[in-house]
Amino acid sequence: MSTQPTDPRYSRQTRFAPLGNQGQEALARGRAVICGCGALGTTTANWLVRAGVGKVRIIDRDLVDWSNLHRQVLFDEEDARQVRPKALAAAEKLRSVNAQVEIEPITADLSARNVQRLLHDADLVLDGTDNFETRFLINDFCVRQGIPWIYAGCLGAEGQAMTIVPGESACLACLVPDCPRPGALPTCETAGVLGPAVGVVASWQAGEAIKILAGKREAITRGLVVFELWQGRVRRIAADRVLGEQPCRACVRREFIYLQSDRQAPAVTLCGSNAVQVTPPETRLDPGELAARWQGLGEVSLGEGFVRLQTPDCQLTVFADGRAIIRGTTDPAMARSWYARLVGL
Question: Which one of 14, 114, 194, 304 counts the least CB within 10 Å of its CB?
């Protein structure tokens, strides 16, 4: 169902001269895909649907839980009680906001095996994920296909975002040449996150998305924007395509290694044990360091060459080689989600 610029719901938006009726008509034809429907994804989806973007596809592998409610704005207590799939719960709320927008929820784990099917028809892809592995997958696909996308992330009271236009701007691999190894970086689960920080970054992301979908690319912000809410600072860092002697793997050399299906950490259900084994690419972890990060999240025990965390939802045992056994589920996507949240992936 298409939106019309004369609809009174868009009257304040179309009065903004840089957008106008022409921009609103372009938004109505736009197709956005949001990868991840957590804190960033719910806020961004909310703004895009209210703005009248023609079609919004929401991809998420996770379920709503109580810890989501302080920052994931499309979910409520009933969603947490029912442990509803995030994509479905978000779509239900968004349809009540704007019935003119086509909303397509997909409960799936975005991977090299399904990325072509899920992203091929997008005019724009937005990052609402919680791990760099998926971000590099999105980057490789979008750079290869020439689809603009917007990277974003939040941790603690700090967030960052960067608009990526293939062929015109730096890509994520220009900024971060290699995917951080599992366990190298803190996660929201271990370091926490402030809801308002997420709201600021997601609103910035939505603003950039509106510029692109409305055909106003000249207004796009170039470079990486960093928001530090606790200190009250905003800064922009220049980011150029990496050329020269060591050109960017993705946007210059066009080596799209994350589109290879064997790059994703395999998750295998262990027969008869209500558990899944997740095996990331070869890495080394410090179980003691991980144990320190997990303090306060549940019962932590440290053994020879492994660390174990017991929570009400799952038992996670991580070995020094990065391999983990997650008890409490037989769903590989859910196991990968817990691994990403508690270890980093």
Answer: 304
